[in-house]
Write a structure and sequence with these properties.
The chain is an alpha+beta fold and 213 residues long. The protein folds into two domains: 5-14 and 111-212, no CATH class; 18-108, no CATH class. Helices cover 31% and strands 34% of the residues. The chain is built from seven helices and twelve strands. It has helices at 76-83, 87-95, 97-103, 144-152, 156-164, 189-201, 203-212; strands spanning 5-13, 18-20, 30-42, 45-54, 60-70, 106-108, 113-117, 130-137, 142-143, 168-169, 177-178, 182-186. The strands form three sheets. It has a five-stranded mixed β-sheet. Strands 5-4-3-2-6 form a five-stranded antiparallel β-sheet. A hairpin with a 2-residue loop joins strand 3 and strand 4 (45-54). The structure holds zinc ion. Residues 23, 25-26, 28, 54, 56-57, 59 line the site of zinc ion. This is DUF1062 domain-containing protein. It comes from Streptacidiphilus jiangxiensis. It holds the Pfam family DUF1062.
Length: 213
């Protein structure tokens, strides 16, 4: 008899990642795109930069997108987008992992994603186990602990406690990062409470049952 409840969580992007590299003017290292792209022409050669602002001091700095690229090597539509500070292209460049590698900085995706729970988890007291399918619509790995906190609306300590006593079964360590779809199971407060209650009164049979499971 399969009476499992099922839910689906979508991990979605809610903001751009932060670009992490030292600011030349202050001790900060977090940058946001300024929304602008600069194109500099020297004859037929073009330099293209994504402009960033330091989160702390607002200093503008540049990320090299194209360096001395011949104008004929760039897609004309793309070039127009650069010249118009096209917002979609700014977003794309900001999230571009290979651009980050090439320019020697890191992307920090903390606080740039959210969990959209298609089935609201209003009934954590329901004793039926809940199977959650987690699907990723985000081009970056996320910390499993934070995913559970957001998905279940629980504090860090509550998540740790529930994983510790087996009420949440997740195929990752809490401090691991996940980026592929996976399933987790939540045995809810009601059922766990019942187990704890039973264990207090009948410790041996319960332990035997668990060992035999
Ligand atoms: Zn700064």
């Amino acid at each position: 008899m399969n009476t499992d409840r099922k839910a689906r969580w979508a991990v979605r992007q809610s903001a751009l990642p932060t670009i992490v590299r030292p600011c030349p003017d202050c001790s900060g290292n977090r940058h946001r795109p300024s929304g602008k792209i600069r194109v500099n022409a020297s004859g037929k050669l073009l330099d293209v930069w994504l402009l960033l602002s330091c989160v702390r001091c607002d200093r503008t700095s540049k990320v090299t997108v194209h360096e001395r690229a011949h104008v004929s090597s760039l897609d004309p539509e793309r070039l127009v987008a650069y010249e118009n500070n096209d917002a979609a292209v700014v977003r794309e460049l900001t999230m571009n992992a290979s651009l980050a590698t090439r320019n020697g900085y890191r992307l920090d995706w903390t606080d740039s994603w959210t969990v959209e729970a298609r089935t609201p988890l209003h009934s954590l007291d329901d004793p039926t186990p809940l199977t959650v399918r987690v699907v990723f619509d985000l081009p970056a790995p996320v910390r499993v602990e934070r995913l559970l906190m957001l998905g279940l609306g629980l504090s860090r300590s509550a998540v740790r406690r529930m994983v510790g006593d087996g009420r949440i079964c997740v195929p990752y360590a809490l401090d691991a990062k996940a980026h592929r779809d996976f399933e987790l199971t939540v045995r809810t407060a009601g059922s766990a409470g019942a187990v704890a209650h039973t264990r207090e009164r009948l410790p041996q049979p319960t332990l035997a049952m668990r060992a035999g499971a």
